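[SOLVED] Predicted holo structure with zinc ion

Edit: marking solved, answer below. Original request kept for reference. I posted the sequence and ligand SMILES and asked for the 3D complex as structure tokens.
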Amino acid sequence: VSIDPERSAPGPRVPPALSAVLATGSVVVLTGAGLSTESGIPDYRGPTGAARRSAPMTHQEISRDSAARQRYWARSFLGWPTIRTAEPNDGHRAVAALSAAGLLAGVITQNVDGLHRKAGSPDAIELHGSLDRVICLSCRETAPRAVLQAELAAANPSFQPRAGAIRPDGDVDLTADMVRSFQMLDCESCGGALKPDVVFFGDSVPADRVAACFAMVDSASALLVLGSSLTVYSGYRFAVRAHRLRLPIAIVNAGPTRADHLATIRWEAPLGPALTALVDNLRSPAMPRRTG
Ligand SMILES: [Zn+2]
């Protein structure tokens, strides 16, 4: 028997109870920012949250304060290429593999980066929307972000921040003067103000989207939380629902979560390697990975 050297390296040890839960099938996966950090998208609410220099914009600010909106779009115009070009990582691919293997009832993500779609999970419910769409605050028409980005580029040919203002993660520091010089565009249909089609702090997730997620949890055999501290109620409520239904709740996350007291399985591990090991285990249950 020849052993692939890569395979013989010690990987994360998958808790047997976790493999057992997945093997049952009909699992709902709920993912958060921790799943995308290995793709270079920072988890501002997680362990690296202190790295963020400015507070997140609220729904009230972006919908009512035109100066705040201008600041948002100037920063976002510069930061968007980082999001657009981000690639899925092993964690996203593992979720897609579990789905392809018929083990999942569905995927709910709190992420707005579109990486589940890029990784081959087209049916993932994007709980908080997606940055690759823009919505008009007046007529609610949506449009692809790529179209607005091209129009903004044409309207701002000389918008060049000083070197260092854009950090590798896409977060941008801009002076007030720079923000004022940025030419914002309005809705082409009605002249209304535009915002990315994502749920900001202080806004709520559309009711039909929440209902679809609850229905998914209600018909599931277990809930698997990946890379989320569940700090925000919008995701935490699904753990509460699963707990009420007495479903097993497995949480794989680096660091504590708000739902740790509800979890039946708790695994602290880096998401990419951990989920790759989980998929490998499920593919060859008769041949457990070498661990030493
Ligand atoms: Zn409009």
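OP edit: Residues 136, 138-139, 141, 187, 189-190, 192 surround zinc ion (CB under 6 Å). Thanks to everyone who chimed in.
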